[in-house]
Specification:
With about 425 residues, the chain is of the alpha/beta class. The chain folds into two domains: about 160 residues, Lyase, Ornithine Decarboxylase, Chain A, domain 1 (Beta Barrel), CATH 2.40.37; about 240 residues, Alanine racemase (TIM Barrel). It is built from twelve helices and 21 strands. The strands form three sheets. Strands 4, 14, 15, 16, 17, 18, 19, 20 and 21 form a nine-stranded mixed β-sheet that branches. An eight-stranded parallel β-barrel has the order 5-6-7-8-9-11-12-13, surrounded by five helices. The longest helix is centred in the middle third of the chain and has 19 residues. It is globular. The N and C termini lie far apart (about 60 Å). It binds ligand LLP. Ligand LLP binds next to helix 10 and helix 11.
């Protein structure tokens, strides 16, 4: 569910007509609903009711400062994967002691910055990384809290580009090595072993992979306890899928698959949800430039493109496309919705049944809150969209649209000899 609804044929974000936002800020623009963000955060948090837990929102899914600030105010921690995300979270008001640092390629500079900030723990993915963290901690006279991220070797049943828990992925420590890595970690004085973590993939809409991951986590925790390790945290990662089209995954099934079985371990459970909190809390507003009919196909050419929202091009992802103003007379047609970028892979929808829009009409690309703006680029020298948050009957531009001038910042004109 979300709070983007039609009222008398006009699409609103909460109490604000999207048309009004487009008229004021122009398009393309990402619009997020604060009520939806709050609601999803609370509902996900409820899944862990009665269990010691910490929600660490996956910053990478939507990292606008005002969104992070809202979650921080709601008590959220954050999962980060770069010093850039660390800085964003801190600037947004996050508590460092609620930040976990994931990722296979943390640099020594990033490790040092996170240690100085005083984060909760590093989720470590390889032996060389473990040594790097130990070395940086030692040089700073600090002790680094770490967990090892296990790769549970299972099939997450999702798109290959967003699967991380299968054996051949670059993520996590293989099951066969995990106990040995813990033994290595305990030999290093500048490390404090505090947890175990995993993350098996994204947009998972069935219980099985979570159940399998849970079983493997329990097995590892018990083995570690037998070896005298006293863990505090068990980090389940993110991965809960949402409805883009007709998918359905009940959070109660997630709870039964992984939260309930793990509660008996009496550890603090950490979750790193991204998409399930913000995915359907955002839309990308765009305007129809042309309706182009060829002898074989119809194209709706809009002013946003794969640089603004890359998910359809990259993962063949489905995003519903709704007219901002419903037109009773519009016939239903099948069309590709495409952007202005010079690539055949530049589309927002293919062979989509939708009411035929006219040039100048506004469309809302739904479910664009997660991995939307954050994956936007400047390809074809296109400035990235503005971002707006609606809260009830108020709305705020929380990121200005980039300008062409912004795109050339940092570039230098050098006159090279033509010969
Ligand atoms: N924790 C870790 C360590 C992760 O790598 C991720 C996502 C998450 C948590 C959050 O996962 P979520 O709850 O959002 O599924 N760009 C892709 C998704 C990439 C996900 C990467 N990691 C997409 O647009 O579908």
């Amino acid at each position: 569910m979300h709070y983007f609804e039609y009222k008398q044929g006009e699409l609103y974000a909460e109490e604000v007509p999207l048309k009004q936002i487009a008229a004021n800020t122009g398009v393309p623009t990402y619009v997020y609903s604060a009520a939806t963000l709050r609601r999803h955060f609370k509902v996900f948090d409820q899944v862990f009711a009665g269990v010691d837990h910490l929600i660490c929102f996956a910053t990478k899914a939507l990292s606008n400062l005002s969104v992070l600030r809202l979650f921080a105010a709601m008590g959220s921690g954050f999962d980060i994967v770069s010093v850039g995300e660390l800085e964003r979270c801190l600037r947004a008001g996050a508590q460092a002691q609620k930040i976990v640092f994931s990722g296979v390629g943390k640099t020594k500079e990033e490790i040092a910055a996170a240690l100085k900030a005083g984060i909760l723990m590093f989720n470590v993915e390889s032996l060389p990384e473990l040594y790097a963290i130990a070395e940086v901690a030692q040089s700073l006279g600090a002790r680094a809290p770490i967990s090892l991220r296990v790769n549970p070797a299972l099939d997450p049943g999702t798109h290959p580009h967003i699967s991380t828990g299968h054996r051949t992925s670059k993520f996590g420590v293989p099951l066969v090595q995990i106990l040995d890595y813990y033994e290595q970690a305990r030999k290093l004085d500048s490390l404090e072993v505090v947890g175990l973590s995993t993350h098996i993939g994204s947009q998972i809409t069935e219980a099985r992979p979570f159940r399998e991951a849970g079983e493997k986590l329990i097995d590892i925790v018990l083995k570690l306890r037998a070896r005298g390790f006293e863990l505090k945290y068990l980090d389940l990662g993110g991965g809960v899928g949402i409805r883009y089209d007709d998918e359905f995954f009940d959070l109660a099934d997630y709870a039964r698959a992984i939260v309930e079985p793990l509660r008996e371990l009496k550890l603090t459970l950490i979750a790193e949800p991204g998409r399930v909190i913000v995915g359907n809390a955002g839309v990308l507003l765009t305007r129809v430039l042309y309706v182009k009919d060829t002898d074989v196909k119809r194209f709706i050419v809009v002013d946003s493109a794969m640089n603004d929202l890359i998910r359809p091009s990259l993962y063949d992802a489905y995003h519903a496309i709704w007219p901002v103003e419903q037109r009773a007379s519009a016939p239903l047609v099948v069309a590709d919705v495409v952007g202005p970028i010079c690539e055949s892979g530049d589309f927002l929808a293919r062979d989509r049944l939708l009411p035929l829009p006219q040039a100048g009409d506004l469309l809302a690309v739904m479910g664009a809150g997660a991995y939307g703006f954050v994956m936007a680029s400047n390809y074809n020298s296109r400035p990235r969209p503005a971002e707006v948050i609606v809260d009830g009957n108020r709305w705020y531009v929380v990121r200005q649209r980039e300008t062409v001038e912004d795109l050339m910042r940092g570039e230098r004109l050098v006159d090279l000899s033509p010969e």
